[in-house]
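Hey, sorry to bother you again with one of my protein questions. A protein chain has come my way and I'm curious about its shape. It would help a lot if you went through both lines with me. I owe you a coffee for this, so here goes:
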Amino acid sequence: MSTRAAIRFAERTPGQSFANKPKDVTHQIYHHYDGMPDFLGVAIAKFVDTDDHNGTDCLAAQLLCKLKLGLHYDEIKCSKGIVYLEHPDQEHSDADYTYYIWTGRGDEVWISIFKYDSDECLFVGRPCDLINRYTN
């Protein structure tokens, strides 16, 4: 059984809580397999914690390339049918998790994880906090 996830990018505005889903999402990546926080969440966190980016657009493009090439599986192979770039309004009735990658405060990036079909927030924090939580 696949664990599906949507990865959404948002720029944080003043007063916006990381524990609430943002109204404005700039990009969305759909990941069809292995969407659990202890795998995909950690892979995303490791990538955004160590990689330089030039704003939300650049970060979304870099992460899409990493996932599409399968680098989070420690391989280089263009994955057909696993990773998709989508319109931010695309919905998935069978998705399990939604990841929000927050930018907009200098170079600082935060991540929120929600159950896909609810407002239940499972995690809010910096990438290093996510890595520590799900790998220890």
